[in-house]
Design a protein that fits this description.
Layout: H1 2-6, H2 14-23, H3 29-42, H4 47-59, H5 63-76, H6 81-94, H7 97-104
Helix pairs in contact: 2-3, 3-4, 4-5, 5-6, 6-7
């Protein structure tokens, strides 16, 4: 774990940041978020990196940021069921159940 910490922001490989974010115990919330953001920046075409960042904001109940990220990711990775689920969940929280159902029926 020391090596993961010592590398800082030097690596330019998104899976490194996703791995470090998930392996660091106890979780350092600032570093965790920074690692997720770096992974999403380094791999803009990777829906998993985007989804992990969305999940972070979901757990923090920051629905405004989650909405921005989810909308963008869903447009980019339309065929990804997990992102469609996130969008539906978000609509049921921020809008209405009917809005979420209508979205699912598209």
């Amino acid at each position: 774990m020391k090596l993961l910490k010592d590398l800082g922001q030097e690596p330019d490989y998104a899976p490194f940041y996703l791995t470090r974010a998930n392996l660091m115990v106890p979780k350092d919330d600032v570093r965790f978020l920074a690692d997720l953001q770096m992974a999403a920046k380094l791999a803009p075409d990777n829906w998993r990196a985007a989804n992990m960042l969305i999940q972070y904001y979901s757990e923090k109940k920051d629905y405004k940021t989650m909405l921005t990220l989810t909308t963008s990711a869903y447009k980019k990775f339309r065929g990804t069921r997990l992102l469609k689920y996130n969008m539906c969940l978000l609509l049921s929280i921020t809008a209405s159940t009917q809005t979420a159902l209508n979205f699912l029926m598209q």
